[in-house]
Every structure is written in C-alpha cells, then in structure tokens.
Design a protein that fits this description.
globular, 5 strands, Arc Repressor Mutant, subunit A, single chain, about 210 residues, alpha+beta, 3-stranded antiparallel sheet, 9 helices
Length: about 210
C-alpha cells in the first residue's frame, strides 16, 4: 500500500471512530506498517489540513489519536443541541480534580481534603465514567481506591495524566469561578441532587439522559 493510500485509510479510520484510536489499533486494522510510520503520516495529514484551512486536526489524546475540531470554533459547535455539553456542579469538578491529581485515592482522603462528605459527587463521577474503581488500599477495611478513566482523558483532550495543568492554574480558574458566583449571587451548591449550580462546561461530553 502506497503512502497516500495509507494516509487515506488512517483518515477514514479516525474520521469514523467516536473514540481515540491507538497506533497499535491502526496497525491491526490495516494489517501493515508500524507506529513510527503512522505517526509521520498523521503529521503529514495535519500539515495538509493546516495548509488547506481545514477546521479540524488529528490530536493525540488518551493514549491514541482522534479527529478534533479546532478550539476557536467551539462557540458555534456549542449551539448544536444534540452535542451540547453537560455541566457539573463546582463541588463535583473539585472532587474530580482531587481524584485526578491524587490518584489512586480513597473516599476518606477526598473528604479529608475537601472537608465535606463526597459520596454523592464520587457517585456522580462514576456514573459519568470520569472516574473508576482501580483497587483497594491494603489497610484494615480495604477502602476502595479511585482513579480517572480513559474517557476523562478524552473529555479534556489529554494524551496522558502528565499533561494535566498545574495546580496553580487550577487555583486561578477556581478563584475566577467563585468570584463570578459571588457577583451573580449564586453561592456554591450543597452536594444533593437538584441543588447543583451550573458551572464550567466539560468539553465533548454527551448530553444528560
């Protein structure tokens, strides 16, 4: 298979897949080639997209590759009701951040950091497939350990956990949101269903059922 044909096949695979595809999976589907060759082909495709002014690129996320619309077009994409992103309460996003940065972590440790009961927020994150049970801590009682999922990486456009923003950047975002809530007269919600305040949107999340 010639290089141009390989590019076309890779493009078709990535265009058709709703999830990130690893280079190993590409190799298995094509039955030929290797990761190094495929990465060069993907780089060449991105150069072609940029040169021709296409609105998407192939991005490395969650240990694989996925076609993604350029961020500057998000305001228009958000207007499409079928793919409107869901919103989580600030306490839920705070809990997700703790799990992401401290994983593997128990519920007790999450609650120690937050200072409040986190059962509901952890359950919400499990239902959204943003976190998962990764094991049990080898101590009396064997408490459950939580970690993030591959879907979490896809949602936030991360190749791996090393690409997480710094804690200082997160503090700035949280301070901005708290100031916004105070200005609009919306205090942080309690952690019970029906009381969640709309907070920062999670990109690429499916709508709530």
């Amino acid at each position: 298979m010639k290089a141009k044909e390989q590019e076309q096949v890779i493009e078709a695979i990535l265009f058709s897949s709703p999830q990130a595809i690893s280079l190993r999976q590409v190799s298995e589907l094509m039955g030929t080639g290797n990761s190094r060759e495929f990465k060069k082909l993907i780089e060449n495709l991105n150069r072609q997209y940029e040169k021709s002014g296409r609105v998407f690129r192939i991005r490395e996320v969650a240990g694989g590759f996925q076609m993604r619309t350029e961020p500057r077009f998000r305001p228009w994409i958000k207007k499409l009701e079928p793919i409107k992103p869901i919103k989580l309460s600030l306490p839920t996003i705070e809990t997700l951040a703790i799990v992401a940065y401290k994983q593997p972590i128990t519920r007790a440790n999450v609650e120690f950091i937050r200072g409040v009961d986190s059962s509901y927020t952890l359950r919400t994150l499990l239902q959204r497939n943003l976190i998962r049970i990764v094991g049990k801590e080898p101590v009396p009682g064997r408490p459950i350990l939580y970690g993030t999922t591959k879907f979490f990486l896809e949602v936030f456009g991360l190749s791996n956990l090393n690409n997480l923003p710094s804690l200082a950047e997160l503090d700035m975002v949280r301070a901005t949101e708290e100031e916004k809530d105070l200005a609009e007269g919306h205090p942080e919600s309690e952690e019970f269903p029906g009381q969640a305040v709309e907070q920062p949107e999670l990109p690429n999340m499916p709508p709530e059922e």
